[in-house]
Amino acid sequence: MVPALQLHMSKTAMRASQKDFESALSQVKRLKDPGNEVKLKLYALYKQATEGPCNTPKPGVFDLINKAKWDAWNALGSLPKETARQNYVDLVSGLSSSSDSSSQVKPEADRKQPGYETLVVTSEDSITKIMMNRPAKKNAITIQMYNEIMLALKAASKDDSAITVLTGNGDYYSSGNDLSNFTDIPPEGIEEKAKSSAILLRDFVDCFIDFPKPLIAVVNGPAVGISVTILGLFDTVYASSRATFHTPFSHLGQSPEGCSSYTFPKIMGPAKAAEMLIFGKKLTAAEACAQGLVTEVFPDSTFQKEVWTRLKAYSKLPPNAMRISKQVIRNREKEKLRAINAEESRALQERWLSDECTNAVMNFLTRKAKL
Ligand SMILES: CCCCC/C=C/C(=O)SCCNC(=O)CCNC(=O)[C@H](O)C(C)(C)COP(=O)(O)OP(=O)(O)OC[C@H]1O[C@@H](n2cnc3c(N)ncnc32)[C@H](O)[C@@H]1OP(=O)(O)O
């Protein structure tokens, strides 16, 4: 870029940002109480934007409020003042843009793409959003929903959106595989059912392995089973503080899928992965974040606003650069992931024929067992 033009552009951007910052400062006074976590975030960004990195002495352990403020500011490290100012403006605009603070999203009937019964698929602001839409069944994934998610991902890989999001409608992200999928046995028998389910599973997970654009999970509530395991194939995972992460495979007489037998030990180390995948330990959002499965946790009260503000900003980045970056990060693992997916699907095909699995599913369907 011509240096003079570059200088002009950056000065304009900084001036605009300073103006936005001042208006955000007055806007923030009119907001209803956004809760302590957001207030701390606002405080930290304000201090960073106006004074730069925190270099004041750390308050004593009993000075709880000032220590919390200092920690929040100090956590921003050497974030540049301009970026802090911009983040402050984005956060305030997200907080003001909608008065709806609930985690339930109303399906956007007017903008939704036709042809899906179990999903609401929308494309707006260079973001394709695929929302699982069986809230009364906790977004349990039926055979139809697996097929529709694959269709939606294939369409999103070719549309002009820059990023793609998977999320859930209602209080759950997803309760995983719909256990009544196992009851629809074809005339060819149970072996045939297990075989076709293994093929479906392999094809479904391959779609995530091969997805070419940045893929983001917006985990709006508890996540179970396959909705958790495939998170290792996403590029970013944002979670509400209400979300939990649970893979009760042994309880169900089953074994891990979604390449989690490979991605989880890689992400969180073998010992933590084994506790989740073998013993079914349920993680809170904070624990999942500490272990690297989740990118960032947001307070439930501001989850939708904060996440969508962030995603709208990301979706404005150059789309080709984002795609190439993803390829560079992921491509060398693709063949390996496909082989792991095939192996996990084969193991499950056998598990689905076991007494352990049949009894666990029957117990759930006859309401003798719940997680
Ligand atoms: C073909 C490819 C296979 C890939 C392999 C995948 C494996 C997995 O994903 S394993 C994980 C399977 N999921 C589960 O085991 C979860 C089972 N569900 C539960 O334990 C509970 O429903 C709950 C803890 C998720 C929620 O409990 P609660 O808040 O008490 O709500 P309800 O149980 O009353 O649920 C409301 C409604 O939704 C139905 N439902 C919820 N989850 C599922 C599910 N996974 N499969 C089928 N149906 C589900 C539940 O039966 C209720 O229905 P109604 O009784 O008709 O209201």
UniProtKB/TrEMBL annotation:
Gene3D superfamilies assigned to the protein according to its UniProt record, in alphabetical order: 1.20.80.10, 2-enoyl-CoA Hydratase, Chain A, domain 1, Lyase 2-enoyl-coa Hydratase, Chain A, domain 2
Pathway: Lipid metabolism; fatty acid beta-oxidation
Start and end residues of each ACB domain: 17-101
Reaction(s) catalysed by this chain's protein: (3E)-octenoyl-CoA = (2E)-octenoyl-CoA; a (3Z)-enoyl-CoA = a 4-saturated (2E)-enoyl-CoA; (3Z)-octenoyl-CoA = (2E)-octenoyl-CoA; (3E)-nonenoyl-CoA = (2E)-nonenoyl-CoA
Keyword annotations: Acetylation, Isomerase, Mitochondrion, Peroxisome, Phosphoprotein, Transit peptide
EC numbers on record: 5.3.3.8
InterPro entries the record matches: Acyl-CoA-binding_prot_CS (IPR022408), Acyl-CoA-binding_protein (IPR000582), Acyl-CoA-binding_sf (IPR035984), ClpP/crotonase-like_dom_sf (IPR029045), ECH/Chromodomain_protein (IPR051053), Enoyl-CoA_hydra/iso (IPR001753), Enoyl-CoA_hydra_C (IPR014748), FERM/acyl-CoA-bd_prot_sf (IPR014352)
Region (Disordered): 95-114
Locations listed in the record: Mitochondrion; Peroxisome matrix
A cellular-component GO term for this protein: mitochondrion
Gene Ontology molecular function, alphabetical: delta(3)-delta(2)-enoyl-CoA isomerase activity; fatty-acyl-CoA binding
Pfam families: ACBP, ECH_1
Entries under SUPFAM superfamilies matching the protein: Acyl-CoA binding protein, ClpP/crotonase
Family label: In the C-terminal section; belongs to the enoyl-CoA hydratase/isomerase family.
Entry protein name: Enoyl-CoA delta isomerase 2
